[in-house]
Amino acid sequence: MAQQVAAQVADIIDLEREIEAQVRNSPPIREQRPLNIASAAVRAPTPSIPDYVEHCEGATEIGKLSAEAVVREYEAAAKDIEAMGAELIERVKQCEAMTRDALAVTDELRETAERYRDEAKRVFLQIEDCSLVTAEVRKICTELKEKIAGPATIDRVLKPKKVKSVPPSDGGS
User: Fold this and answer.
1) 19 partner at 20 to 30 Å CA-CA among 28, 48, 94, 114?
2) Using H for helix, E for strand and C for coil, what is the string for the chain?
3) Tens digit of each residue's pLDDT (9 = 90 or more) over 96-108
4) Would 58 be classed as within a structural domain?
């Protein structure tokens, strides 16, 4: 990275020298005007250069202008990079909010799953209880059928059931 920057700086310096040489060696296109003719309104105001740079003594006007243009481009890029950083922080905040929401939803899902398990257990026990009751009813019904459908024996027909008798009372004597 440092080599790349150094190569770019060297290219800029070479370009600066070429421009300066061409300006010196080129014939004037028009007659030169006196410097006092151009008013301040005609000249565009040059924006100030960033505080972290200053011109070297002896730098040519072309060198100064080129250096200012380059540093302004770098400064604009640096501001864009800072803006991307601010945008990234905003995205991080959105991700954090989504993470908090996802954790809350996960807790709700866990609670819902637990309620489903409790309901499954309740239904399971209820079905087994119904099955037990049904089996008992079937057993009793089968026993009753067998008693009803069984052969009639003389003992069952002739013998009345024994009933406990209550001893007669004396009549109060």
Assistant:
1) 48
2) CHHHHHHHHHHHHHHHHHHHHHHHHCCCCCCCCCCCCCCCCCCCCCCCCCCCCCCCCCCCHHHHHHHHHHHHHHHHHHHHHHHHHHHHHHHHHHHHHHHHHHHHHHHHHHHHHHHHHHHHHHHHHHHHHHHHHHHHHHHHHHHHHHHHHCCCCHHHHHCCCCCCCCCCCCCCC
3) 999 999 999 999 9
4) yes
- The whole model's pTM is what? 0.38
- Structural domain includes residue 139: no
Which domain covers residue 52, as residue numbers?
8-23+46-116
pLDDT digits over 36-89, tens only? 544 444 555 556 888 888 888 999 999 999 999 999 999 999 999 999 999 999
In the chain, the number of structural domains is 1
